[in-house]
Amino acid sequence: MNWLSLLLKNIKKPAMSRLPPLKATASLILALLPCLALIWLWWWGPGWQFKQTHPLETLSARWLATVVILLLALSVVGIKIWRRLRQLEKLKLDVELNTVDPARADITRQDRYLHHWQARLQRHLGTRDYLYQRPWYLVMGNTGSGKTSLIQAGCRLTDIAAPDTLSGEDALPLHLRCWLGEKAVLIDPDGFLIDQLSPPDDPKPQLPARLWQALLAWLTENRQRQPLNGIILTVDIHRLLTDNKAQREQVIAALHLRLQDLRLTLHHHLPVYLVLTKLDRLHGFSAAFQSLDRPQRAQILGVTFSLNAQDEQRWRAELAQFWHQWMQQLNAAMPDMMLNKVDSSQRSPLFSFTRQIQGLHSYLVPLLEGLLASGGPAQPGLRGVYLTSSQQIGQMDDLFTQSAAAQYHLGPQAFPTWPVADTVPYFTHALFEEVLLAEPNLAAENRLWLSRHRHTLLTFSTVGAGVALALWTGWHAAYQKNYRAGDEVLAQAKTFLSVPPPKGEDRLGNLQLPLLNPLREATLAYGDYHQKGLLADMGLYQGAAVGPYV
């Protein structure tokens, strides 16, 4: 198929370059057709013969044909003008609406991309049930949370519909991307849609909220049965630890509101996987994990809660148990790592790293409480908490040392920056393979779709039961009717056999009447079978078989 696609592409390029002259030539030919028809009509029309007649021989016939040709030409021209006027009116209306509503163009741009991507997905998968062939996950996080780097490092993605392939697009930015993975579809909206923060002088302050609502509306419209199979929520560890209380509350509130939007719009329960990114920004990360080989770096660092851990006390206990065991393992491995696996310059960062991880738990619990607050029907359920490092970039920070320096009124300390080099992902590959994309059936179906489906099923079941009851009643009545007719045939046959043969000379045939009467009654017990069709008595009619036999 590759060589065929290449051949068609090579043929299409010169054809598309010559398309405007071809259109002009076609328009000229269509304009000349009425003129040529009129010339033929008045020059050769009188001699034209059809079925041994000359329909255009008379002058009135030629004038009538001329009027018909002119009306057809005017109709074609009028239709083209009407279509052009409608197109111009639509363009004018679009310009006016874009002026009144500046965000409309961005929403149209996003909708065009989503529909284009959907068409490419159908073409790529090649099946009618392409929307449900693979599970769909929404990857959401604040600006700079590292969600795109996470999914690119954790699974193989195919960009089946790059935004630059859309023809005729202007310079409007696209605020989301859809990725096709080997196991699932990943929808990656920008943090701009999650934070929904706009500068005071922004001409489109409602743009992020409307783009977000347009995305949810597209999901509910195209995947009505089960819009999503899960939510992958990313949070920047460094930002979680360094932000002040007001900033953390703002981040938590934004994520909480987006989760509530999903609950109120999609109407179904979704598992939420919280992934803490940028673990490498904590000073001492390199000293703690530099000895890991590739299989160890691919393992999972985190906790998956039990399926019944929906109440707050249960996930609190399981999270605390995981953190306690992890800190015990770090503290137990500390002496050997200090002596054998790190040099003298890395011992202090290694110790600081363990203290930062220990303090992270106190920041993580309020985050989870804020995300899961005010639960209701179809409230997203927390499935697990995981820590990752997709790529090692940026400046490191040491919250343990900074806190100690602040207590003693010392100045801030400068920490090193990751060198510009090839980075390797930590704790991402197995996370996607075994956890994030491995449980698509945990998501429930859309409650509204399920209610409509049950109502439709109940309606069809009721109608079907009524039809079945009517058919059963009709068949029962037809069966009883034919059964009684059969009894009547047997009774008349017995009567016929009990009639003695006639005695004496029967010149008028009246002596045969006692014999013929039972035969007639037996023959007509089912009615006149000559006038009965194949579906008489709902297909149970037996007169056609019994009548001739009698």
TrEMBL record:
Alphabetized InterPro entries for the sequence: P-loop_NTPase, T6SS_TssM-like, TssM1-like, TssM1_N
Transmembrane segments: 21-43, 63-82, 457-475
Keyword entries, A-Z: Membrane, Transmembrane, Transmembrane helix
Domain Type VI secretion system component TssM1 N-terminal: 210-461
Gene3D superfamilies the record matches: P-loop containing nucleotide triphosphate hydrolases
Keyword Ribosomal protein: no
Pfam short name (any one): IcmF-related_N
Domain of life where this protein originates: Bacteria
NCBIfam families cross-referenced by the UniProt entry: VI_IcmF (TIGR03348)
Protein name, per record: Type VI secretion system membrane subunit TssM
Organism (species): Photorhabdus bodei
Gene name as annotated: tssM
